[in-house]
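Need tokens for this chain, all 46 residues.
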Amino acid sequence: MFDKISKYVADMIYSTLDGVDPEKREIIEYGVYMTVSEIVKISIIL
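Here are the structure tokens for all 46 residues:
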């Protein structure tokens, strides 16, 4: 579930940015994944 959401958001980011190399893409995708998972954790706690 988190993978699909983070992949969708990361693809949206890639489409707006030009010249992103694969290493930076991986970093962006990881950051989006961590953000989505933290939002879900916080919403479950609250």
